[in-house]
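Intended use. Records like the one below are meant for learning the mapping from a protein sequence to its folded structure. Do not use them to infer anything beyond what is encoded.
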Amino acid sequence: MTIHDSLGHAYSGATPQSLEHYELACADFRCYINDPLAGAQQALTGLVLEDLSIRHPLDLLALQAGHQVDFFTGHSRMLRDRIARAEGAWHLGMPGYHAVQSMYAFGLEETGDYARAEALGRRAVTLEPRDGWGWHAVAHVMEMQNRRRDGVAWLGTRSDTWADGSFFAIHNWWHLALFHLGLDEADEVLKLVDARILGTDSAVILDMIDASAMLWRLHLRGIDVGSRWQALADRWSVLAEAGNYAFNDLHAMMAFVGADRQADAARLLATQARALQLDGDNAQFLCDVGRAATQAVHAFAGGRYAEAAQLLRPLRSKAYRFGGSHAQRDVIDLTLIEAAERDGQKLFADALKRERAARWG
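Structure written out for the chain above:
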């Protein structure tokens, strides 16, 4: 007997019980809650998933996995277009329709279509209030439009809905902290850092990236974060020689220099040098952006501001090539501005500030 899922796909080797567990896991994955992957390994490349989604637009797992590959590899256009190709096959009432809307919303935001992105993101969380990616997509719109008060209201008043049981919660807490930082509410930022972002002691790399990124932004503003760097550097230390993703390296370096862990910083730089000689995506990520960005953070922390600015200046137009979002990669511009100021390059720093203000509303 052929077994079909709720969207009509036939499954080989499945029983009614196993398919029920699979669909529950997929439902959790669509909302970024609980533990849907439970140790599973992602084995497909983004191109294979792209072709699969063209043939089978209702294969939501392929769409979502491909969407994440696009995010981690910096393919902003595909974040939008992968979903745009499939979206017409979906309609209200289908299981998982909310997730298609939230993915499309994020892709639209990353390609600058903020009005449509916000509308679809809001629709996604109306359909499924626990859809963490939908909350996230709308938060990105508000960040890019400099709508800090709106962002605090958006995430701050419904946190019990999007945070409960979500493995994506720390990143949305990070966005809420980012809104408070934009409002110069450093005390609120530190409260969120201690209670929600850093204080969880999470060993999940995405959570560690958020902690590094927020502490570094505070550091750039001259705000003393005390001993907070130390525990975070401990968590990054075991990954100093991983050498598998340049975006991680950048944030690990922030923690190492913040905690004055020079030996770990040296190990990380040596690992990058070796990784540049290997085949694969990470060598390209390092060559395009990651190596120079990581060296720049190291130089900045050592007071070599002219060197940091020189390393960062060519990266701004191609920073997308090593993954992350516009909001995350903004740390490159912020570090460049501060390095230029501290080096006495006032005209350049002021020009960058005007440019950034115009770009981000």
